Amino acid sequence: MLAIGTFDDPVANGSMAVFASRHRAEEFLAHDPFVTESVVHPSDVREWNVQAFR
Fold first, then answer.
1. Which residues pair with 15 in a beta bridge?
2. For residue 42, how many other CB atoms are within 10 A of its CB?
3. pLDDT tens per residue, range 1-54
């Protein structure tokens, strides 16, 4: 995980985590106790175009 944090209103808008790859993100979600115990529900994994910021 490279970064993690909540949006302005985490209850309404959730949070975001940035991983080095889609595989790492999916692996994290598969073993995250907050996800496996249904405390949080991940909505999706999206690609990040890091080249746009260089």
1. 6
2. 15
3. 889 999 999 889 988 999 989 999 999 999 999 999 999 888 789 888 777 766
Among positive and negative, which fits the CA dihedral 2, 22, 24, 51?
A: negative
* Encoded tokens for 35: 């996800």
Provide the terminal-to-terminal Cα distance of the chain, rounded to the nearest Å.
Answer: 20
Contact in structure between 18 and 48 (CB atoms under 8 Å): yes
The answer to whether the CB of 21 falls within 8 A of the CB of 44 is no
Answer yes or no: are the C-beta atoms of 16 and 7 closer than 8 Å: yes
Q: How far apart are CA 3 and CA 49, in angstroms?
A: 15
